[in-house]
């Protein structure tokens, strides 16, 4: 992951985090590859009923609207840890 690209995405996520943290959630950058940004909701956001297409769309618009190099923003499902 390119450090500059990661910092640019993180700067945008920092603006969204206070609202997410109010609901005990967060967004994590999983990977940035070839102009594609892969994110994952964490904490309370993983089980929250409002983490639907509208919230995902807000995240997508905020990142792609501010970073011209981003082709796609994808929200990954949390991985289930067993054992």
Automatic annotation (TrEMBL):
<feature type="domain" description="NIF system FeS cluster assembly NifU C-terminal">
    <location>
        <begin position="9"/>
        <end position="74"/>
    </location>
</feature>
<dbReference type="GO" id="GO:0016226">
    <property type="term" value="P:iron-sulfur cluster assembly"/>
</dbReference>
<dbReference type="GO" id="GO:0051536">
    <property type="term" value="F:iron-sulfur cluster binding"/>
</dbReference>
<dbReference type="InterPro" id="IPR034904">
    <property type="entry name" value="FSCA_dom_sf"/>
</dbReference>
<dbReference type="GO" id="GO:0005506">
    <property type="term" value="F:iron ion binding"/>
</dbReference>
<dbReference type="Pfam" id="PF01106">
    <property type="entry name" value="NifU"/>
</dbReference>
<protein>
    <submittedName>
        <fullName>Nitrogen-fixing NifU domain protein</fullName>
    </submittedName>
</protein>
<dbReference type="InterPro" id="IPR001075">
    <property type="entry name" value="NIF_FeS_clus_asmbl_NifU_C"/>
</dbReference>
